[in-house]
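Long-time lurker. I teach an intro course on protein structure, and each term I like to show students one example going from raw sequence to a predicted 3D structure in token notation. This year I'd like something fresh instead of my usual example. Would anyone be willing to generate the tokens for the chain below so I can use it in lecture? Attribution to the forum is fine with me.
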Amino acid sequence: MKAMGKYRIFKRLINLNGIRSKNFTPNGFTMIEIISVLVIIGILSAVAVSKMDSIDAYDVAMETETMKIHLRYSQIRAMSHDEPWGIKISNGTSYSLQKNGSTAPVNLPNKDSATYYFAKGISINPGNQVINFDDLGSPGNADIVITLKKQGKNPRRINITPKTGFIY
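-- Reply from a regular --
Happy to contribute to a lecture. Here you go:
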């Protein structure tokens, strides 16, 4: 009998009667939980996509900031070299760095030439203009306003104040 008792204990320890034991707890998610999480993620992503601006607004903002950098560069060159430097806007699609009224022999910052072409679809108003800075960094006595747009939408302005040459 003593041997039979050991057999029952051994049988209970290795649970030969089935996989589940009395203390079985399920580990996993139910189908309802998975579906509800997917529905919530779908709703959140739909709201996020609808709140996003078009990429055109970012293109215009990038081109505007690039032009501001180039205007400031020409202004600094004018102040440091005691001669007029500026930017000449051509056909509303490009501009070039100018020194004494002609294309400068130096490249624009981080560019391979003195001429910069806007990204496709970007236009500038006024389309033909020369902005020169004197040795004090002033563009003259008139307020200068430049507007950039992409396909007529998302306008961004660059203002240059008279006398001080502040670019914003």
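Some talking points for your students: Residues 55-160 form a domain with the minor pseudopilin epsh fold fold (CATH 3.55.40.10). The beta strands are 85-90, 94-99, 102-103, 115-117, 122-125, 129-133, 144-150, 153-160.
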